[in-house]
């Protein structure tokens, strides 16, 4: 009997969301909340957003005399569950990548045309 392992493809997914972007959650238990992207995980197509999808973890004491504690931390959520949020227009939008006149690639919002970077 052959043993098969679950192997994910190691292909990095091209993400249009980057660290530092302001995003809004469009589905799930935190739907409607906005926050800043702290970290992107392109191999898993996931993002970590500040204040969103928080989990509580109980930490045992590591030394004698130290007390255990309860830590709340953000966990990742799938990139398809968030959209870029415009603070100017107060609207969520898809992102398009276009080539500027000087030949550099830039990102802008499809709804408002606002440049992201």
What's the alpha carbon Rg, rounded to whole Å?
A: 19 Å
User: What is the strand tally?
Assistant: 10
Low-confidence stretches: none
> What share of the residues does DSSP label as strand, in percent?
35-45%
* CATH top level class name of the domain at 22-87: Mainly Beta
User: How do the strands of the widest beta sheet line up side by side?
Assistant: 6-3-2-1-7-8
In this structure, how is the largest beta sheet organized? Answer: 6 strands, antiparallel
Structural class: mainly beta
Q: What's the average pLDDT?
A: 90
Distance between the termini: 54 Å
From the coordinates shown, what is the CATH architecture of the domain at 22-87?
Roll
Helix content: under 10%
CATH topology of the domain at 22-87: SH3 type barrels
Shape: elongated
Order of helices and strands: EEEEEEEEEE
Q: Number of helix segments?
A: 0
Report what the structure shows.
This protein is an all-beta fold and 117 residues long. The chain has a domain of 66 residues: Roll (SH3 type barrels). The strands form three sheets. Strands 6-3-2-1-7-8 form a six-stranded antiparallel sheet, with no helix packed on it.
Keywords:
elongated; 117 residues; two-stranded antiparallel ribbon; 0% helix; mainly beta
In summary, what is this structure?
This protein has 117 residues and is an all-beta fold.
Please give the structural blueprint:
Blueprint: E1 22-25, E2 34-41, E3 46-49, E4 54-59, E5 69-74, E6 77-78, E7 82-86, E8 91-93, E9 95-99, E10 105-109
Antiparallel strand pairs: 1-2, 1-7, 2-3, 3-6, 4-5, 7-8, 9-10
């Amino acid at each position: 009997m052959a043993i098969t392992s679950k192997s994910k493809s190691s292909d990095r997914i091209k993400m249009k969301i980057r660290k530092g972007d302001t995003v809004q959650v469009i589905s799930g238990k935190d739907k409607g909340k906005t926050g800043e992207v702290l970290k992107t995980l392109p191999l898993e197509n996931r993002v970590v957003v500040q204040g969103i999808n928080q989990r509580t973890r109980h930490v045992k004491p590591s030394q004698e005399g130290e007390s255990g504690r309860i830590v709340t931390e953000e966990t990742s959520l799938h990139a398809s569950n968030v959209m870029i949020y415009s603070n100017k227009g107060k609207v969520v939008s898809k992102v398009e990548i276009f080539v500027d006149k000087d030949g550099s690639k830039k990102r802008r919002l499809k709804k408002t045309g606002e440049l992201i970077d």
